[in-house]
Write a structure and sequence with these properties.
268 residues, 7 helices, 9 strands, SAM-dependent_MTases_sf, transferase, Methyltransf_25, methyltransferase activity, methyltransferase
Amino acid sequence: MDMPTKQQAIASNRDAWNDSARHHKDNPDWPVLLDEVSRADFSCIDDTLRAVLDEVGVEGKEVVQLGCNNGRESLSLYAAGARRVVGVDQSAAFLQQARELAERSPHDAEFIEADIHHLPAALHGRFDLALITIGVLNWMPDIAEFFAHVAQILKPGGAVVIYETHPFLEMFDPEAADPHRLASSYFRSEPFVQHQPIVYDGKVEQPAAASYWFVHTLSAIFTGAMAAGLQISHFKEYPHSNREALYDQYQQQTAQLPLCFTWVAVKR
């Protein structure tokens, strides 16, 4: 497989997400979400992440969500007490959905189109808290470089909260004849490549821009963050899946894998 450069992978991922946005909106959950965000106490954040955010403290803080997708989690941060919320994503199509939701919301969230590797200077040193949720880290070709950009937009003493899929899951193929057989190395260096639209349930059988999903070990995540001047203050693994429904089959096993994790680091 010909490996793309970092810049080519980032650009192709952007195109893939822009193409996929219409498939996410063409879903019976969309009109329900439009109605729900009109409530001041709207939140789609699950109990696991909510507990971590409560521990870190959101009340009165200026918060940024990196890789905010359609903004539903960004808008949920107001229910946790955030004073100001900014969502950042490189997909213009998903940010259009975020702005549609924001128009229904009583809260004044801001959504910015930007590649995380080229964040506007106005965001530097601005935030008390950065939130990164499911399916962000693996779109990053270089995890250490990513954390350097995250640290750049935090105030001294600011925290980054991550709620992500566990990298152990990248070793399995949930659609294989034997989904419990190891299918890929934990230390895989080349990205997974997909040429169909990115959707969470099922597949859309039509061509799309290539999307590149990069595997990062826990050690790469930890050392990348520490190199960026982030001091890790919390790390916890969980037996439940926070990924697509296909991965639910890995829950409640006698020999249970860690399926997701929460992680907090503070800018020194």
